[in-house]
Every structure is written in structure tokens, then in C-alpha cells.
Amino acid sequence: MAAGQLVLIISPKGKRYTHTLEPGKEVHTHDGRILMSEIAEAGFGGIVRSHLGHPYRILKPTVYELIKGVKRQTQIMYPKEIGYVLLKLGIQPGCRVIETGTGSAGLTLALATYVGDTGKVYTYERREEFYKLAQKNLARVGLSHRVEQHLADIEETGFQQTGADALFLDVREPQDCLRHIPPAVTPGATCGFLLPTTNQVSELLRGLEQGPFTEIEALEILVRRYKCVPDRLRP
Predict the structure, then answer these.
(1) Which of the 8 DSSP states describes residue 175?
(2) Which tens digits make up the pLDDT trace of 114-135?
(3) CATH number corresponding to 65-209
(4) Is 24 a residue whose pLDDT tops 80?
């Protein structure tokens, strides 16, 4: 394991910590201190013990873990929505994707992961504090080079890009931004929207019906977790 790598540290009770490996430093937990030099020596899949003797598992963080672990000042999209969005938008290496409503960069992180080094994510955020937070979150996971951030209100400015392969809007009133979409994407590109209330969805649908948009669908994604005990398997 090399300095600068991200590591996932899991406590005996399942509490998860994501840290950047910095030999010579320590991780402080409720169960005591853990030396990062010992984490590096144990490697992924290994076990280290805190100075109080509690065992911690060391794993390589997945995209799921990185999204769940972003520092946030906003509500983020979670993996249950993001996985569906990635598939529906057709995100793959080489894609050029426009995103509006960067927020804390949860979705941005996932998009940047899957477009690869040959693709690009163009993300727009109108609030400077969120713009700076997203900048830090992307730098922490080493994905800044795949993302072009814009501090702008796209309702007023529109998009600087043309010919994008996909577009996603997470803004309060996306119907007011619809006129900016056709010039920014390739013909037939897939677009997605995230809205928390049915009233907002209704307003968006009215706007979509008046524009060059087809194959429209609206859905809610739910996850039901189960207690993982063989003899007492239940929600």
C-alpha cells in the first residue's frame, strides 16, 4: 500500500472510516488509536488492532463507500438512485456528461469514476460554498482531473458545452432550464432529473410535454434491508 491511497477501516461493530493513508500518522477511533504504518503493513483484507486491542478490518473503499463518505452540506444522491441513473444515462468510458446541481459531489464522483480518463464531467453549481466543498471532495478521491466545475446559475447562463452524451439536472425548478438542454447535447441524448415532491414532478412533466422530449418516465426507487441472521431473516 502506498502513501496517498484511500483505505476503509471497519470496526468490530461495523462502523466505517475512510482515510487517506499517511504513514507516521494515527487514526483515532472510539476503540483507541491505530497506526497508519500498521495499516499499510497489514494491507487490504488484513486486520490491525487499536492500542486498546480492538481488531479493525482494512479494505479498499468501493465507489459505494466513497459516495457514502463524502463530506456534505447538502442532501446527496445515494447509491440506490445513482446506480439506476448511471445505467439509464448510458454512462461509460469516454462519455461527456453535463450535471447541474453539484452539491456535495456524490453523483459527480460516480459519474467521474465511470467516464474514465477519456471522458469528462461538466458540473454546474450556483452556490460558491457547495462549489468549494465539491472541489475538496473530488480532490480527496483523486478525480478532479475528470471534472470541469462551473460556478454558475444555468437558468440564466445556459451551458457552455455542446454535443454532450448525457445530462442530469438536480435543481429545484428544472422546467425553467429545459430550453438550454437541446443545444448542449447530441440528438437523442438521455436526460435525467431528480425531484423530491410530486408537485415538482408535475410541473416538470408539463414543461417536457412542450419541448422536444420523448420516452418520458417517472419513478421512485426504494431499498428494503434485511436482518442478515439465517434463522431470523426479516426486514
Answers:
(1) G
(2) 999 999 999 999 999 999 999 9
(3) 3.40.50.150
(4) yes
d(CA 33, CA 235): 35
Helix, strand, coil percent content, the chain, rounded in steps of 5: 35, 25, 40
**For the whole model, what pTM was predicted?**
0.89
Class of 6-61 in CATH? alpha beta
Domain ranges of the chain: 6-61, 65-209
- Cα–Cα dist 170/63, whole Å: 20
Using alpha carbons, list the distances in angstroms from residue 226 to 11, 57, 230, 234: 21, 23, 11, 5
Is a pLDDT exceeding 80 seen at residue 74?
no
Q: Rounded CA gap, 40 and 168, in Å?
A: 39
Q: Which three cell numbers stand for residue 153?
A: 446559475
- Give the position of cell 443545444: 183
Mean pLDDT calculated for residue range 83-92: 97
